Amino acid sequence: MYTINRERFLRLMDEQAQFGATDAGGVSRPALSPEDMQIRNWFQQQITANGLKYAIDGAGNQSAILESSNLNAKTLLLGSHFDSVPNGGRFDGALGLIAAFEVLLSIKDAGIALPFHLEVINLTDEEGTLMGITGSRAIVGLLSREELLNPRGERERLTEGMSRAGLSDESMLSAKRDPALLLGYLEVHIEQGTRLEEAKFNIGVVTSIVGIRSYWMTFKGEAAHAGTKPMDKRRDAFWGASAFALWAKDRIMADFHPGVVNFGRIHLEPGAFNIVPAEVKLAVEFRHGEITQLDAMETAILEQAHLAAQEYGLQLEAETGDSLLPAPMADSFVTAIETASEKLGLSHTRLLSFAGHDAQSFAHVTNSAMFFVPSVNGISHNPLEYTKPDDCVNAANVMLQAVLEIAGITT
Ligand SMILES: [Zn+2]
Questions:
Q1: Å from CA of 247 to ligand 1 middle
Q2: Position 322 confidence tier, pLDDT thresholds 50, 70, 90
Q3: Closest CA to 361 of 160, 104, 121, 157
Q4: Nearest to 121 by CA among 103, 109, 108, 107
């Protein structure tokens, strides 16, 4: 049975963690920041030094390509991301890319002839410090000019990053590829949760990446003197917003398991110790793997918001924000990952991904799949993020076997 080169792989894992390394032991490599540019240069060097073809597209996605002798073959992408959240961990994204790169090197070393081109791809701005799953959306044509002009990470930061990397709005939009040339996309990632660790599974095979919907909910009351206005006469916007948050949380937990809801941002006006809040704007986001459940969650959450506004004498404005459709993974690839795990004697289970990943972009146009390896204590987006060396090696070996399964090479 073919296996990856453990020593080389773990050495590359250590090397990548030097770029943007933080004192706390993690990495800080926001997309297209100077630290991200450093690891990009390093990756390019690794690709060319190993005699592989290097390519970069208009969205800054960097690729290592092992071409099939059949030049008309389709391309199987193995991807993830080197960008991190500010002050993040050294495994999120990087494990997937280094594992994929090691798979490509191992296949090249072994002289295995694949019936497809194999391309390892570092996808730009997965984490969303600029826009979120940006590189993959550029490839599948889900990036718009409007979003480039008004990115969630602010336009100035985006233009700074693009100029650092020699990119432009035009180039970003030109990165779209013909889906007919793609065979599919595969990714391995740390779980960022505790389901595998608690149930003692080696591998978690993702069946769907959850859909996400969001709202800005604005509760409008009346500003008043925080001392002299009698409590029973107040129209305090914060009372309504906080009642809504707790009611909505209870309802989602009771009726929509395993769905989740979050209230991640709040603006309070006028915003002083001594003024009753006149207006509260609350960021609401909710996720589920099935679209019918997302619809029902949306209805329930809006219902709770209206009830809370009514109860506290407030007006409500509900403005829809970003949304993402649930992304089911390709059955044939899911099976390939399960077969690969079994051949390696690794235990596996199926699960939903509650975090967004580039695999969801590709699911719109081609076969897409991903799997997880355990994260110690589920810690992620944190310098303490850790995945044991054996689990990292499992990630790369399952990826290698899955590629061979897809290629129809049984060993
Ligand atoms: Zn990630």
A1: 31
A2: confident
A3: 121
A4: 103
- Rounded to the nearest integer, the mean pLDDT of the chain is 97
Distances in whole angstroms, Cα of residue 319 to Cα of each of 72, 125, 273, 309: 48, 26, 28, 15
CA 383 to ligand 1 centroid distance, Å: 14
CA distance 368 to 38: 29
Q: Give the Å distance between the CA of 7 and the centre of ligand 1.
A: 24
Q: From ligand 1's centre to the CA of 95, what distance in Å?
A: 9
Cα of 18 to ligand 1 centre, how many Å? Answer: 18
Backbone angles phi, psi at 209, to 5 degrees: -100, 130
CB 362 within 8 A of CB 184: yes
How many Å apart are CA 197 and CA 398, to the nearest integer? 18
Distance CA 247, CA 238 (A): 14
User: In the block, which residue shows the tokens 């959450």?
Assistant: 301
Distance between Cα 259 and ligand 1 center (Å): 20
Are the CB atoms for 376 and 388 separated by under 8 Å?
A: yes
Cα–Cα distance, 44 to 32 (Å, whole number): 15
How confident is the model at residue 79, as a pLDDT? 97
pTM: 0.86
Contacts of 226 (CB under 8 A, 6+ apart): 273, 274, 275, 276
Nearest to 99 by CA among 186, 169, 172, 35: 186
Q: Burial, 244: exposed, middle or buried (Cβ in 10 Å; 0-12, 13-18, 19+)?
A: buried
Lookup result for tokens 């409590």: 231
Q: In the beta sheet, which residues pair with residue 352?
A: 208
The tokens describing 28, both together, are 């800080």
The mean per-residue pLDDT over the stretch 231-244 comes to: 98
Do 266 and 241 touch, CB atoms closer than 8 A?
A: yes
CA atoms within 13 A on the CB side of 75: 18
Pairing of strands 62-66, 53-56: antiparallel
Residues in Cβ contact with 339 at an 8 Å cutoff, skipping those fewer than 6 apart: 401, 402, 405
State yes or no: pLDDT of 411 exceeds 80.
Answer: no
How far does residue 378's CA lie from ligand 1's centre (Å)? 13
pLDDT given at position 253: 98
CA 150 to chain centre: 20
User: How many Cβ atoms from other residues are within 10 Å of residue 334's Cβ?
Assistant: 21
Predicted pLDDT of residue 290: 87
